[in-house]
Design a protein that fits this description.
It is a single chain. By secondary structure, the chain is an alpha/beta fold. The protein has a domain at about 125-260: Cytidine Deaminase, domain 2 (3-Layer(aba) Sandwich). It has helices spanning about 50-60, 135-150, 150-155, 180-195, 210-220, 235-240; strands at about 5-10, 15-25, 25-35, 35-45, 70-75, 80-90, 105, 160-165, 170-175, 200-205, 225, 245-250, 255-260. The chain has a 6-stranded mixed sheet, sandwiched between helices. It has a 5-stranded mixed sheet with strand order 5-6-3-4-7, covered by helices on one side. It has a two-stranded antiparallel sheet with strand order 1-2. It is flat, with a radius of gyration of 19 Å.
Length: about 260
């Protein structure tokens, strides 16, 4: 759990008082692949192996599910947080994307910031062909499980969460990060590291759904995506085109289905 304590002054009803607030940590992580810098991403420190694994998988840089990259820590900051890693992989297994196709900086608020082009999502089968349908009861239970496990958010109020579930609602992994897309990358990466990617039927997120979240779910082959908040128009368009089931506004015992369907 990456949190830091900060001194501040709180004003309430015109009166000031000194307070000590807990904030979600945010730090840069430089990722180099085979000696070349791939990106610097802003994220919440912790579970770097899963973050790197998921990010490289989502961006078609490294898709081998059996041989995991070697990830070596190169730098840490004054808090002990990892700030640079060196990734070593078989050059023949690197994806079709050029290392230079991503600009240097990727901020925590935007999963596609730093990319010079969008990932091609049209070169694959529709996820609507995957068997199984979630029940409405299972959907609501999944969000209850995720909320109960958001320890960083509980203390700081400043982190997003993502979690992966099986068809019957068993939680496989839950990850928190200051960036929505980072949390999803950590989930996908952890599933790969645990050999459970094929077991995941649904990813849920604590924020909104935009294009990059849909792209990550699709690339991972996970057919259901659901969020506490709203979807963007492009997210809905792509979900319908790619055969994803997309649910949003999943809170207060209700949700809206924008693509696909669930059982009553």
């Amino acid at each position: 759990m990456a949190i830091l304590q900060y001194q501040a002054k709180k004003y309430q009803q015109g009166l000031a008082s000194a307070v000590e607030d807990i904030l979600t940590a945010e730090a840069a992580l430089r990722i180099a692949i085979n000696g070349s810098v791939f990106t610097i991403t802003m994220r919440t420190p912790g579970n770097e192996a899963a973050l790197v694994r998921g990010l490289l998988y989502a961006e078609d840089m490294y898709r081998d599910l059996e041989a995991h990259p070697v990830i070596a820590v190169e730098e840490r900051n004054q808090y002990g947080y990892i700030t640079a890693v060196a990734v070593t992989v078989d050059p023949e297994k690197l994806g079709k994307r050029d290392l230079n196709s991503r600009n240097l900086l990727s901020v925590s608020s935007c999963g596609i910031c730093g990319n010079t082009e969008l990932v091609d999502l049209n070169a694959g089968q529709s996820l609507a062909d995957k068997p199984g349908t979630l029940s409405s009861t299972t959907v609501l239970q999944m969000f209850q499980q995720m909320r109960a496990g958001q320890n960083t958010f509980e203390q700081s109020g400043g982190s997003h969460a993502a979690a992966a579930f099986t068809l019957d609602g068993q939680m496989l992994t839950l990850q928190e990060d200051i960036g929505r897309h980072n949390a999803v990358d950590k989930v996908v990466g952890q599933l790969i590291l645990d050999g459970q990617l094929g077991d995941a039927f649904c990813i849920i997120v604590s924020g909104r759904i935009s294009y990059e979240i849909v792209s990550k779910a699709y690339v991972a082959g996970i057919p259901v995506l659901a969020a506490v908040s709203a979807p963007s128009s492009l997210a809905v368009d792509y979900a319908r085109e790619l055969g994803l089931t997309l649910l949003a506004f999943c809170r207060e015992d209700k949700f809206t289905v924008y693509a696909g369907w669930v059982q009553d």
